[in-house]
Amino acid sequence: MPSKSTQEKSTQIAIILSGIFPGVGQFYNEDWAKGAAFFIASLVLDVFLLPEGVGYWDIIQGKEELTLNLYLRLLGLVLFRIVAVLDAERSARRKNAETKTQQG
Hints:
- By secondary structure, this protein is mainly α.
- It has one domain (about 10-95).
- Helices cover about 70% and strands about 0% of the residues.
- It contains five helices and no strands.
- It has helices spanning about 10-20, 25-30, 30-50, 55-60, 70-104.
- About 20% of the residues are buried.
């Protein structure tokens, strides 16, 4: 059985994992430092950009009044998550290209 570093990485899995929580897709791709950076940054952004005591589910359910300030905060969080997803996808493609070069 090949080691993890020689196995092809699924871009779909990397995207889904990073979409669920930024950094996890990078961990899947074995980009440990980048994964830790995205993971910690996501935690910090959630703490500082979401109002105190309010979670995503509260916003979805309409328990929190949507003001321009909150919209802009959510836009920042969404953009960060998009960057994390795109990075995880790009990293998976890069890892796969490196693996093919090493094998071929």
